[in-house]
Task: inverse folding
């Protein structure tokens, strides 16, 4: 997305009169409508997270951001002057055309700096985030971009037990991209650590280097890889056998102005996603100021001492909203399922050539 | 040294090139080819189905292919010891061993590269490494030094062999045409002129000095593939020295085995004498003690602290699932070679060779114990995975490919030892006269005496 388009988008959505304003102004205008998002509800929210994403035709809503629309679907927003205005819904939630230029994809969404905040106090291991993530990315059950860890020792009376969703932290000092011999995994300008699986040689050095085991490998033919599909490193589809995969904050979604799949999937609003530049995060229902949230709730990052500077923050599991035990059933179920899955795929693991690769 | 002795050395050096392989040699080559055929089949499976045919998974994302790579790189360092370090330090016993060591080095490093390709999920994209390699990646450092070392190793094998190739050209008559041509081309019109000798001497001197930093670099960089990560057990500043010191032990053990085999196969008892085993045994003690030192610092210091994750790893190694491999490697790969050859009996060819075979196997296990356990000891919890992911068990395909790569290295060494004289003929016969310090003179006399004695034994 070009900066020109971005500022057009702001004009149209945020109602800012002066395009190409300073960074602060941009930030504020987005923040304004983000703040509004909480009132407008989740539907509008997803359209707003990245500042409207890529507006294909700014003229569609560009000029008349402040007038009352006759369209049946309108959305109310604050403009820069703090006035409530109404704009056409389609002016906001345009789905972006897939960006196919590799150079542009490597730059990322301009002006953004994506972060995530995970509220451990709300997690009860519902595993909906995992399920939606798996489905959206066509992953095999044993390939989890996002996993929920059981933390603490259940048998120890003094242990603090809680559930911890963990995904790729999109580190700002990423051990994985450093070691890649061919620049197949890289850090984008918007903070996302992405993979170009058309370049990956499958050496798995990045997997060895990642201290969080965030990366998974396509050990066999990936599920549901459609040959006809045009590859994009933003969707990471179609997947390719012999290459590395991982969570990448769903860049195709955020470019289109939507939240990553795991965020709206969570029934308890555990996962917040947002922009560090604008200092704002949302879980689809609530919009929070990132800095305030981290300050007030004592946000921290996992294994901070490694110095990888993750972009995923955790809010400690203080005053848990659910008893820890409520998640145990799902946990055991998931483990059992994994065991069954293992037994199921075992025979085809070892060399029977007639077994269909995609079925493994 | 008189002309008669020199001619005898030349004859002995060229004799294997005149003879056929013999049935033992043919069986050996067929055996290696059979292993390679199975490996090719297994690798075909791997290419078709993906790396899923291996025992690797998202926890153990590297397996025995990487251990094999580390092992082969380690073994290749032996070229530098015998051709360079022992030469610069004037150890006479290295003379008949240099070519064997160089052959092993070249064979090992060639197939170390193959091991890496076997490990790749997308081997057809190998060209990317050269086309768009990132200099920031330690893999690219490794590619650079491995290739540099391969070139230097080949030169170090070839340059001192030029006069020997001239002997082949001049004195081998009843050989196939292609071989004649090969020797003629490779001998580079060597006529033993003073100018040629001076040039050769300078080239050799240059190479034997150049090879030392490159040899140290190659295994240091290999260790950095691990040391640049955060994983406890790999995250060590001493890893380079730890790897290099271990490589020397493994390499010398390989040379001892090769020395024993060649002596038997080619009847080189008068060149590869008991004395050579004796010295190699002493060298093994020294190198094992150095390696022991690095092992103690690598394990004792963290074991004193038992910090959380490192402690968990040490438990896996000391008393956990890897304890058998770990202690086996320590005892057989370090303690025994540091102790047994101290005794004179331990340096006799038979005992030392048995020990060396055990050391080679133990050093394989050692590479396994260095690479695998830190992968199982994850820094972050990994819980919802198939239970067998927490243990690494290589599959038959993986083992077959690994064995095939080792067989390939052995076959390369065997073929080279069939085409080229494994005895550095000139080095043994002529080198004495060029260097005239007192030590050499003594060595020369001892050698002549030895040749005479063995000659007598031959007649009896």
Result:
């Amino acid at each position: 997305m070009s900066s020109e388009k971005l500022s057009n988008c702001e004009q149209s959505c945020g109602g800012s009169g002066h395009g190409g304003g300073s960074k602060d102004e941009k930030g504020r205008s987005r923040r304004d409508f983000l703040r509004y998002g909480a009132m407008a509800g989740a539907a509008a929210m997803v359209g707003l997270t990245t500042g409207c994403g890529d507006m294909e035709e700014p003229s569609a809503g560009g000029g008349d951001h402040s007038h009352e629309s006759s369209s049946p679907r309108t959305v109310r927003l604050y403009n820069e002057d703090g006035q409530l205005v109404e704009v056409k819904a389609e002016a906001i939630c345009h789905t972006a055309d897939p960006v196919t230029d590799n150079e542009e994809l490597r730059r990322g969404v301009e002006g953004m700096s994506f972060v995530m905040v995970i509220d451990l106090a709300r997690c009860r291991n519902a595993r909906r985030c995992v399920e939606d993530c798996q489905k959206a990315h066509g992953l095999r059950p044993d390939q989890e971009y996002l996993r929920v860890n059981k933390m603490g020792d259940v048998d120890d009376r003094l242990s603090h037990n809680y559930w911890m969703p963990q995904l790729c932290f999109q580190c700002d000092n990423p051990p994985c991209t450093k070691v890649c011999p061919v620049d197949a995994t890289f850090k984008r300008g918007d903070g996302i650590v992405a993979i170009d699986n058309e370049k990956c040689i499958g050496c798995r050095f990045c997997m060895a280097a990642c201290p969080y085991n965030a990366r998974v490998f396509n050990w066999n033919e990936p599920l549901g890889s459609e040959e006809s599909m045009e590859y994009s490193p933003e969707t990471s589809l179609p997947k390719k056998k012999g290459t590395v995969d991982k969570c990448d904050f769903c860049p195709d979604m955020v470019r289109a102005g939507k939240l990553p799949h795991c965020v709206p999937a969570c029934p308890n609003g555990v996962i917040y996603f947002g922009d560090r530049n604008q200092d704002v995060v949302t879980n689809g229902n609530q919009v929070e100021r990132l800095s305030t949230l981290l300050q007030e709730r004592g946000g921290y990052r996992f294994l901070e001492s490694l110095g990888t500077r993750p972009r995923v923050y955790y809010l400690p599991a203080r005053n848990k909203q659910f008893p820890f035990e409520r998640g145990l059933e799902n946990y055991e179920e998931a483990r059992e399922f994994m065991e069954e899955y293992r037994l199921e795929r075992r025979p085809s693991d070892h060399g029977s050539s007639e077994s269909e690769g995609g079925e493994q | 040294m008189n002309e008669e002795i020199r001619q005898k050395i030349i004859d002995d050096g060229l004799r294997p090139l005149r003879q056929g392989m013999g049935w033992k040699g043919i069986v050996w080559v067929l055996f290696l080819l059979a292993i390679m055929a199975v490996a090719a089949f297994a690798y075909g499976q791997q290419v078709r189905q993906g790396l899923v045919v291996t025992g690797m998974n998202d926890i153990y994302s590297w397996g025995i292919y990487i251990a094999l790579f580390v092992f082969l790189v380690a073994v290749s360092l032996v070229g530098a010891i015998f051709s360079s370090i022992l030469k610069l330090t004037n150890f006479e016993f290295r003379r008949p061993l240099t070519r064997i060591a160089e052959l092993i080095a070249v064979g090992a490093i060639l197939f170390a590269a193959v091991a890496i390709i076997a490990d790749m999920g997308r081997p057809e994209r190998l060209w990317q490494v050269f086309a768009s390699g990132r200099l920031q990646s330690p893999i690219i450092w490794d590619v650079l030094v491995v290739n540099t070392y391969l070139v230097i190793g080949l030169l170090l094998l070839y340059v001192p062999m030029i006069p020997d190739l001239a002997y082949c050209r001049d004195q081998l008559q009843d050989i196939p045409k292609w071989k004649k041509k090969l020797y003629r081309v490779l001998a580079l019109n060597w006529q033993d002129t003073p100018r040629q000798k001076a040039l050769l001497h300078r080239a050799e001197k240059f190479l034997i000095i150049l090879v030392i930093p490159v040899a140290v670099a190659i295994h240091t960089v290999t260790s950095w593939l691990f040391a640049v990560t955060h994983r406890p057990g790999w995250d060590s500043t001493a890893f380079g020295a730890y790897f290099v010191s271990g490589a020397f032990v493994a390499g010398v053990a390989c040379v001892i085995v090769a020395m024993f085999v060649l002596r038997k196969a080619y009847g080189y008892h008068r060149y590869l004498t008991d004395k050579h085993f004796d010295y190699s045994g002493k060298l093994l003690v020294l190198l094992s003690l150095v390696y022991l030192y690095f092992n103690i610092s690598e394990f004792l210091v963290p074991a004193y602290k038992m910090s959380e994750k490192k402690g968990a790893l040490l438990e896996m190694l000391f008393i956990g699932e890897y304890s058998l491999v770990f202690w086996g490697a320590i005892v057989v790969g370090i303690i025994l070679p540091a102790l047994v050859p101290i005794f004179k009996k331990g340096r006799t060819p038979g005992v030392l060779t048995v020990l060396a075979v055990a050391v080679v196997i133990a050093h394989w296990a050692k590479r396994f114990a260095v690479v695998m356990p830190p992968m199982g000891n994850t820094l972050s919890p990994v819980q919802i995975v198939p239970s067998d992911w927490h243990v690494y068990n290589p599959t038959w395909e993986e083992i077959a490919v690994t064995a095939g790569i080792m067989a390939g290295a052995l076959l390369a060494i065997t073929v080279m030892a069939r085409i080229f004289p494994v005895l550095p003929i000139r080095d043994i016969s002529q080198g004495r006269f060029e260097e005239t310090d007192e030590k050499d003179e003594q060595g020369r006399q001892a050698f002549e005496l030895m040749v005479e004695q063995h000659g007598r034994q031959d007649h009896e």
Summary: Chain A has two domains: 3-92, 111-315. Residues 3-92 of chain A form one domain. The longest strand of chain A covers residues 114-119. Chain A touches chain B through 60 residues (CB under 8 Å).
